[in-house]
Amino acid sequence: MEDYQLLIDLHNSANRQGPGGDAETKMALDLSMIDQSAPLKIADIGCGTGASTLLLAQRLEAQITAVDFLQAFLDVLEGKAENMGLSETITTLCCSMENLPFENEEFDLIWSEGAIYNMGFERGVKDWKPYLKRGGLLVVSEITWITGSRPSEIQKYWDEEYPEIDVASSKIGILEKNGYSPIGYFILPEHCWLANYYRPMQNSFKDFLDRNGNSEEAQAIVEAENREIELYEKYKSYYSYGVYIARKLN
Predict the structure, then answer these.
(1) CB 88 within 8 A of CB 81
(2) What does the mean pLDDT of the chain come to?
(3) For residues 129 and 179, is the Cβ–Cβ distance under 8 A?
(4) CA gap 132, 136 in Å, rounded
(5) pLDDT, position 192
(6) pLDDT tens digit string along 42-98?
């Protein structure tokens, strides 16, 4: 079994495929100052199984295109949307976030929680900008240093995992350089990592290993996830996801 298929198996039944929370999604929506009663067209890019997609669909008068490159995640989202009576609001699209089939100025809002790192923050905000209407809003979460310096162990780990990790002022500068006006920023609190993401994942490890015959590949994935969790618990005062809200200027 390919590693990505094992990762699908590990994360497919989870509510979230990365740190986040309903309250934080609502906070980002409120900070965007978007008219929540107006008809909107939204793209949720890297939606996973749709935790944020479903919440946006419940709160807004919107047509939402939920994008992920894994059809298995979209299948879960479609099932949830049907059960919640939201199927007419949400359309799924299985494709790469690097090759989106959208028209210029198609969307009022582009949303992406915990996913833009797959193509890199700067490339993402630059490549997605044409899809936003003038004055449209971008809401993304991105792994972010929350102190000016940090211990070498965690610096080395994240430099290898994601070299674009940086402080919020750098990320905001990238938004400004690429034609956005930043209008809000906050960091995800600890419960978004532990209670909402890591603990449910840890609770699924045994069943995951059993389903996959305790293979070396499955064990390696569990070991890597446990290593990431240990580092977060040790160094959580140095990094988190930053949530960035910005308006397209032109």
Answers:
(1) no
(2) 96
(3) yes
(4) 5
(5) 98
(6) 999 999 999 999 999 999 999 999 999 999 999 999 999 999 999 999 999 999 999
125-140 pLDDT per residue, tens: 999 999 999 999 999 9
CA distances from 188 to 38, 58, 103, 231 (A): 28, 22, 32, 17
Q: Which two tokens stand for residue 44?
A: 């949720």
Residue 150 has phi, psi (to 5 degrees) of -160, 165
What does each C-alpha distance from 72 to 11, 22, 35, 79, 81 come to in angstroms? Answer: 10, 22, 33, 11, 14
Task: With a cut of 60, say whether residue 202 has pLDDT above it.
Answer: yes
Q: Which of 115, 113, 135, 116 is nearest to 126 (CA)?
A: 116
Reading the block at residue 138, the tokens are: 């971008």
Question: Could you give phi then psi for residue 242, rounded to 5 degrees?
Answer: -95, 140
Give the C-alpha separation, 62 to 40, whole Å. 4
